[in-house]
Amino acid sequence: PAFMLPAGPDVGDQVPGEHVVLHAPELIFKLLDEFHGVSVMAPEKSLHYKENIQVRLANGEFVSAWVYTMN
Q1: Distance CA 53, CA 39 (A)
Q2: What's the CA dihedral at 54, 57, 62, 63 to 10 degrees?
Q3: What average pLDDT values come out for the chain (71 residues) when binned by 10 residues?
């Protein structure tokens, strides 16, 4: 499943989600990349791609976060 923003003039730019801190990111990201169909060898053919973006938490704080986006 993937989150798709609805179209229309009253659409906001907030996507509900969870922000978690990983203690073994190399291992976890390897597993998540495989789960989401991310291909390092052919990113243009991947089901999703991973990118690092700035997100705003519920408390208003901005943090850097990795997100998976449909290709």
Answers
A1: 19
A2: -60
A3: 56 77 91 91 87 89 90 85
